[in-house]
Amino acid sequence: MTSSRELPLKGVKVLELGQLIAGPFATKLLGEFGADVIKIEPPGTGDPLRKWRMLEEGTSLWWHVQTRNKRSVALDLRSEEGQSLVRQLAQEADVVVENFRPGTLDDWGLGWEALSTLNPGLIMVHISGYGQTGPYRDKPGFGVIGEAMGGLRYLTGQPGEPSVRVGVSIGDSLSALYAVIGTLLALQERHKSGLGQEIDVALYESVFAMMESLLPEFDATGQVREPGGSALPGITPSNAYRCEGGEYVLIAGNGDSIFKRLMGVIGRLDLAEDPALAHNDGRSQKAQMIDQAIEAWTQTRPRDAILKALDEARVPAGYPFTARDIAFDPHYIAREMIQTYTRESGEPLKVPGVLPKLSATPGRLGNGGPTLGQHTEEVLDELGIDPDTRAKLRGAGII
Question: How is residue 6 annotated by DSSP?
Fold first, then answer.
């Protein structure tokens, strides 16, 4: 979908002082909707994400997703000259996003007090493991630690077995989403006051905010929610069921009317008409029995036949998609969630599409991840740094 209207964040300048996942994911989202994102990377090495997971031609394939629509400036933040250049960039920026250890930027003269004095309208987003205050402030914290402290890691896995991690960096990604929400709220408020503000995002809090009724249930009853494996404890039926051949289907028959239709499909009208099972609270007391009845039906049938029967009965069902399933799924393709980016080598690369979907001003796929320092000269030229000074900075290894 295209539009003649400008992207909603066109004219917003974002300075990214961070690396790896949470901060850069937040700025990626802003860049997809028109923000001019200037990414500061250390000269020589760049963002460590360039070397994470699977590499091709020496660069992470993840890089082409995480860093699209950004301009890369190679700049040594530990040098006085580099810090001076960042202050100049911050004077022209609307937003600074950083995910260093709390206090690091203050030590470099690049903290909130310093930058907001130069630019009162600046919005500064901090993303860290534990936040900018509190007794854990200075502890190192990666996403997996935030997932653990936030309560998610305890619930993942089978009852009585060690917990397992979610297969992606969900703590970082959730924090990035909260960072974007905070940025948009602060931009809206700045329209009224003309002033910027700080946004403090902690990894563990971003996860904790997703934990539904975990805390009030404990407070009211003293019960600690335990891992439920593939089931959703207290919501019945919603589970993974073995099919003929060892595959699995996921069935969510937890709506009252849906439950009746599901029981009709599996030939258990006795359960469909049982008054004790008419609502979720009653069904949850008989969850094991209901799951056994469903699996007695699924394990005698191939997965595709099960899905067809459930679709016809309008019972929500699916199966765990692999990367291959996603890449060729017609619904993903029709919704433009599978996009193709052409790398500098000329080779195509499938990448995720842009979210959320706006009808009038949809986001842009844009370019893939920039090479290290690809835009250094361009950005410094925009700052008015003359060629001789740039040559000296380059010679000293500062850019």
Answer: P
